[in-house]
Amino acid sequence: VTDQDGDLDIDFLDLELQIDGMSGWYFDFHATGERNLGQAAILGDIVTFTTFVPDNDICASEGESYLYGVYYKTGTAYTKGVLKTESNSFTGKETRTDGQEVVVKKVKLGKGYSTTPNIHTGRKKGARAFVQTSTGAIIAVDENTPGTAKSHQVSWRDLLK
């Protein structure tokens, strides 16, 4: 499995086993100045959060915002895409300039600083993340949410499986 930044090139299950028992994971953002300034939201097995990359021009008032959807156990892209891409599908894969197909873990939200994502689940499968940017735009991004994402009664025996 390789994510869109090329961070991972080992088997996904091997990575889970390597991380099991550790204190957690952290992110090294690739864009200069990229930072997470808000809180994350977790639903099912996916952690959703926004980042902001300030403009290189110090006179510019807007930068770019991104929405990440990563697997809570590893901090990497999930084994398949969870964020709806511009191609209007959840294939979750992009082809990099070197021709390698990679799993998408972030989508560009556009200009302006973005707030903490708010996650909504309803009757249909999956969820939707709503983010407001400093430009006033409210952006909705559909998510496929692996794991338990709906409220329902669960036996403790089911949790041990």
Summary keywords:
161 residues; mainly beta; four-stranded antiparallel beta sheet; three-stranded antiparallel beta sheet; 9 strands
Structure description:
The chain is mainly beta and 161 residues long. 7% of the residues lie in helices and 29% in strands. It contains 2 helices and 9 strands, in the order αβββββββββα. It has a 4-stranded antiparallel beta sheet with strand order 1-2-3-6, with no helix packed on it. Strand 1 (41-43) and strand 2 (46-53) form a beta hairpin. The two termini are 25 Å apart.
Task: Quickly describe the structure.
With 161 residues, the chain is mainly beta. It has two helices and nine strands. Helices cover 7% and strands 29% of the residues.
Radius of gyration: 16 Å
**Total number of beta strands:** 9
The proportion of strand residues reads: 25-35%
Structural class label: mainly beta
User: Mean pLDDT, as a whole number?
Assistant: 77
- In which range does the helix fraction lie? under 10%
The end-to-end span amounts to: 25 Å
Which SSEs are present, and which pair or pack?
Blueprint: H1 12-19, E1 41-43, E2 46-53, E3 64-71, E4 93-95, E5 101-103, E6 106-111, E7 118-120, E8 127-132, E9 138-143, H2 156-159
Antiparallel strand pairs: 1-2, 2-3, 3-6, 4-5, 7-8, 8-9
